[in-house]
Amino acid sequence: MHPRDSAIPKIIPDLQRAVRTALEEDIGSGDITAQLVPADRSARARVTTREDCILSGRAWVEEVFQQLDAELKLHWYFADGDRITANTVVLELEGNARAMLTGERTALNFLQTLSGTATTAAEFAAQAAGTEVKILDTRKTIPGLRSAQKYAVLCGGCYNHRIGLYDAFLIKENHIAAAGGIDTAVARARALKPEALVEIEVESIEELQQALKSGADVIMLDEFNDSETRTALSLAKGRAKIEISGSVDRDRIEQLGALEVDYISSGSLTKHLRAIDLSLRIDL
């Protein structure tokens, strides 16, 4: 099973909430334009992508129309994670015309945003091809769409970092200072939530050695040059995983992969996306 498939059951409550909120903000007291169409009018519709993309967001589209009219029928021609070329029909719908018209924009908003996220992730994943490095997302997501965008990252072939502030420790400079040092911070983390991954961001080889001694699972290198990174990898080998973060663009990924770092995290996966150009056309 692909990680994206196992993720869906876990995020169903988030998915339903996100769709409900999106429909409420769009429909408000009622879709007055859709009321121009006879209530019993049936129609067919098709969704087409106007550009190449990686598909993501089927479950969100399905939930939109499930909440509006459970009798609408959706026929997908592609699965999440599929690469689709421009001017291809992605989905056909059949059922009540009013429900289609009311749900059109909300459904496309989810599909274009998540497919845009997946497409960006796929570009990053392609740069890491041939290396062992895993590209991770961050918490720099669109508010309210955290789980949706992290699912889309999986569709694009990259990986998830922590989901939020609750499922893993990421101890940075301010945390270290406030807690009283690296050793104290890690010890408290282990006591607070023993099963959680503990990651520490370090700014020097000295701090790296402290983090290794403390038993951190992952160490994030902040602004290390290639020479310092090689030293860090040598010291951490078999003791902790090494992550590179910060201003890492696609051109830098292959270089870092050659150094054999374990992870590269990038906020660009979720915050520098461009929504995919999609259209929905109805045939009455």
How would you explain this protein's 3D organization?
The protein has 284 residues and is of the alpha/beta class. The chain has 10 helices and 12 strands. The strands form 3 sheets. It has a 6-stranded parallel β-sheet with strand order 6-11-10-9-8-7. Helix 6 runs parallel beside helix 7 and helix 7 runs parallel beside helix 8. The model has no long low-confidence stretch (mean pLDDT 94).
Q: How do you describe this structure in short?
A:
This protein has 284 residues and is α/β, with parallel strands linked by helices. Helices cover 46% and strands 19% of the residues. It has helices at residues 3-27, 58-68, 97-128, 146-155, 173-179, 182-192, 205-214, 226-236, 250-258, 268-271; strands at residues 42-49, 53-54, 73-76, 83-84, 88-96, 134-136, 168-171, 197-202, 218-221, 241-244, 263-265, 278-283.
